[in-house]
Amino acid sequence: MFLHDSLSNRLKKIIKTKKVIKLFVCGPTVYDSMHIGHARTYIFFDTLVRFLRSQNYKIEYLQNITDIDDKIIERAQKLKINPLKFAVAQTKDYKTISKKLNIISVDKYVNASSVISIIINQIKRLIDKGYAYETKNGVYFRVRKFKFYGELSGQDLEALRSGYRIELDKAKEDVFDFALWKKTKDNQAISWPSPWGSGRPGWHIEDTAISEKYFGLQYDLHGGGVDLKFPHHEAEIAQAESLSGKKPFVKIWLHTGFLTFNNEKMSKSLKNFITVKDFLTKYNADVLRFIVLSSSYRSSLSWNESLINQSIASLLSIKSFLVYLKYKNDKGDINKKIISSINSFNKNFTSNLNDDMNTPKTIASIFEFINNIESIKNINKKSAKAIEEAIRNSLNILGIKMKINRVPKNIKDLIDKREVLRIVKDFNKADKIRKEIEALNFRLDDTDQGPILTHNNFING
Ligand SMILES: [Zn+2]
């Protein structure tokens, strides 16, 4: 399999060995409910891991939870609750929503607050090596000492530096030096004792400490949203490589593109976001996964209402095909044409994902497969089962549940009534009943197996 490495800007091969592939994805700063821009990142990485596991790669997937952060403290103080308690509640909410989105592949979630002693130890080592220094406000990383700083994001630091005209913290040696430890002056709710007085860690070192504890200072894959490249991931590289004295920190950097809304990045600070919670009150999680995976993970995804409608229509057509297959009852063995069609579908599906997770092409291959099958006549029960299994396997890798419920009796009665009207050729009345059925959120297809009903449960209510 090949994945695009953001640092070298090249495709890199992932080799299947007995060794476990270690994946670290930057998780949420738990101060607010997850929005669909974040969900895009987490849905993508969940799908990547589902796919790798389906191909028998061994992979360990870890996500950090940033439960110590200025934004959390600020929000908790407004609500007059303890910031760590507030973070616990928010973390629970995050995990519940992830589960609702069928994000099930994370092996371990690790809170920053659980690695404070490692953070302190890392800062000590960085000071000893000359990569960090103490001021009256805290401890900072000395960016000028790490010559690769800026490489990941391709930033020209000198140009950026000259653009900084603001009077900086006088004690800082450089505008880009970032806090490893923040001393707490006032009696703030969260602080830990340290050799530099009581305080709390900076954001970047939290992840490096979690990495070292669980994966070591060199591992395979690190991912997150593209907005984390600078300064967060640059800082992680600087810290880890300065500590270990080895390059590279990780073999492949993976970044998901922005989700934009009216041409602006969807973000909490711009207040133009849609929370996953809100989305899920109206639509099924399958819809969000389908929208996310219909576009290439690296490009930016421009959100609009028509994306929702298109996705629902696509999901509904796959679902109605699955329902249709259930009506196939003829005996006999699988026909050879169907076997070869299934084989080529499986091959396409896998090769598209092997190619840097080309999920749009993968989704297109499902429709091609359905078209192929529809051109084959006389599908018997065994064939139908094999076709259904192939589609189900692929949907499972995409994390799309596609639940099929029983058709309720009142709808079945309407269908019977309509069939009688069609026999007596009262097509006007039969059509009215079709509209009635559709208004109840069912799709009706007249097929060689008779009328087939598919519940549009992608829309709630
Ligand atoms: Zn991170």
From TrEMBL:
<keyword id="KW-0648">Protein biosynthesis</keyword>
<comment type="similarity">
    <text>Belongs to the class-I aminoacyl-tRNA synthetase family.</text>
</comment>
<keyword id="KW-0479">Metal-binding</keyword>
<dbReference type="InterPro" id="IPR024909">
    <property type="entry name" value="Cys-tRNA/MSH_ligase"/>
</dbReference>
<keyword id="KW-0862">Zinc</keyword>
<dbReference type="InterPro" id="IPR015803">
    <property type="entry name" value="Cys-tRNA-ligase"/>
</dbReference>
<keyword id="KW-0030">Aminoacyl-tRNA synthetase</keyword>
<dbReference type="InterPro" id="IPR015273">
    <property type="entry name" value="Cys-tRNA-synt_Ia_DALR"/>
</dbReference>
<dbReference type="GO" id="GO:0005737">
    <property type="term" value="C:cytoplasm"/>
</dbReference>
<keyword id="KW-0547">Nucleotide-binding</keyword>
<dbReference type="GO" id="GO:0004817">
    <property type="term" value="F:cysteine-tRNA ligase activity"/>
</dbReference>
<keyword id="KW-0963">Cytoplasm</keyword>
<feature type="binding site">
    <location>
        <position position="268"/>
    </location>
    <ligand>
        <name>ATP</name>
    </ligand>
</feature>
<dbReference type="GO" id="GO:0046872">
    <property type="term" value="F:metal ion binding"/>
</dbReference>
<dbReference type="InterPro" id="IPR014729">
    <property type="entry name" value="Rossmann-like_a/b/a_fold"/>
</dbReference>
<keyword id="KW-0067">ATP-binding</keyword>
<dbReference type="InterPro" id="IPR032678">
    <property type="entry name" value="tRNA-synt_1_cat_dom"/>
</dbReference>
<comment type="subunit">
    <text>Monomer.</text>
</comment>
<dbReference type="GO" id="GO:0005524">
    <property type="term" value="F:ATP binding"/>
</dbReference>
<feature type="short sequence motif" description="'HIGH' region">
    <location>
        <begin position="28"/>
        <end position="38"/>
    </location>
</feature>
<dbReference type="InterPro" id="IPR009080">
    <property type="entry name" value="tRNAsynth_Ia_anticodon-bd"/>
</dbReference>
<dbReference type="Pfam" id="PF01406">
    <property type="entry name" value="tRNA-synt_1e"/>
</dbReference>
<feature type="domain" description="Cysteinyl-tRNA synthetase class Ia DALR">
    <location>
        <begin position="348"/>
        <end position="412"/>
    </location>
</feature>
<feature type="short sequence motif" description="'KMSKS' region">
    <location>
        <begin position="265"/>
        <end position="269"/>
    </location>
</feature>
<keyword id="KW-0436">Ligase</keyword>
<protein>
    <recommendedName>
        <fullName>Cysteine--tRNA ligase</fullName>
        <ecNumber>6.1.1.16</ecNumber>
    </recommendedName>
</protein>
<dbReference type="GO" id="GO:0006423">
    <property type="term" value="P:cysteinyl-tRNA aminoacylation"/>
</dbReference>
<dbReference type="Pfam" id="PF09190">
    <property type="entry name" value="DALR_2"/>
</dbReference>
